[in-house]
Write a structure and sequence with these properties.
The protein has 263 residues and is of the alpha+beta class. The chain folds into three domains: 5-49, Uridine Diphospho-n-acetylenolpyruvylglucosamine Reductase, domain 2 (2-Layer Sandwich), CATH 3.30.43; 59-163, Uridine Diphospho-n-acetylenolpyruvylglucosamine Reductase, domain 3, CATH 3.30.465.10; 168-261, CO dehydrogenase flavoprotein, C-terminal domain (Enolase-like, domain 1), CATH 3.30.390.50. Helices cover 32% and strands 24% of the residues. It has helices at 12-19, 33-38, 75-81, 87-94, 99-104, 107-113, 120-127, 140-143, 211-219, 224-227, 244-261; strands at 5-7, 24-27, 46-49, 59-61, 67-70, 130-133, 137-139, 144-146, 149-150, 158-163, 168-175, 182-191, 194-200, 208-209. Strands 4-5-10-6-7 form a five-stranded antiparallel sheet. Strands 11-12-13-14 form a four-stranded antiparallel sheet, sandwiched between helices. β2 (24-27), α2 and β3 (46-49) form a beta-alpha-beta unit. The model has no long low-confidence stretch (mean pLDDT 94).
Length: 263
């Protein structure tokens, strides 16, 4: 590690001000950032901790029936408090990492980092959620822009994520046991506008919607509707855990399992 300053604002306004300092970086749960600092892959001069901002905590349902989760809310809290309203999302949160990760990691940190194998991006994109920052609201379809890349601008903070609650949804995850990230996972949601299918862990471009499967499932919601479909494996992640072709096959397998689990 190396020397750096730590700011601990208690309000969003103070956090925004602190992030205006040169080389300042926000710290949410720290599950990615702290190991990155240890490896000296990042060297901010100031860390701005978001953990003490009460307005960024908690789970609630708004007047439009959306599940609203503060950006600083931990995975463990989402798993416990979202279960009555959105079981599929609560189930996703309950399987992230291990207990230590779930009690420190936050939804805002995960969505801002946009790891190509993270769980939350699939839930956010599959739900058609809205990402709220200190400056604006961003639709999930516009937010995720590639591996570790989002629509966030310098100094923007994810303060809340608003989830429309679908009529049914399920998250199916092939666990990579060493990291506990998904090797490939599918989040399938039935919404008023049709079926949404979001895939994580597979593509070099990060989380994506499998639109061919969405069209097939919107016409015939059954695992059989996906059976003849496939995705191109040429731009899939290929590593010691699985080739691109293997991951491309898992996209179909996980989607079919998610649909079957929804009955």
């Amino acid at each position: 590690m190396y020397n750096f300053d730590v700011e601990q604002p208690s309000t969003l306004a103070d956090a925004v001000q602190a992030l205006s300092r040169d080389e300042a970086q926000p710290l949410s749960g720290g599950q990615t950032l702290i190991p990155t600092l240890k490896a000296r892959l990042a060297a901010p001069s100031v860390l701005v901790s978001l953990g003490g901002i009460a307005d960024m905590q908690g789970v609630s349902v708004d007047g439009e029936g959306r599940l609203c989760i503060g950006g600083g809310t931990t995975h463990a809290t989402v798993a416990a408090e979202a279960a009555a309203h959105y079981p599929a999302l609560a189930g996703l949160a309950a399987r992230i990492g291990d207990p230590a990760v779930r009690n420190r990691g936050t939804i805002g940190g995960s969505v801002a980092n946009n790891d190509p194998s993270a769980c939350y991006p699939a839930g956010v994109l599959g739900s058609g959620a809205v990402i709220v920052t200190n400056a604006r609201e961003i639709a999930a379809d516009d937010y995720f822009q590639g591996m570790f890349d989002t629509a966030l601008e310098e100094g923007e903070i994810v303060t809340e994520v608003k989830f429309p609650i679908p009529s049914a949804a399920h998250y199916e995850k092939m666990l990579q046991p060493a990291s506990r990230f998904p090797l490939v996972a599918a989040f399938v949601a039935k919404t008023a506008a049709g079926v949404r299918v979001a895939i994580t862990g597979a593509s070099n471009n990060g989380v994506f919607r499998w639109r061919e499967a969405e069209a097939a499932l919107s016409a015939n919601f059954s695992a059989d509707a996906v059976a003849g479909l496939s995705v191109d494996g040429s731009d899939m992640i290929s590593d010691l855990h699985g080739t691109g072709a293997y991951r491309a096959n898992l996209v179909g397998v996980m989607t079919k399992r998610a649909v079957a689990a929804m009955g």
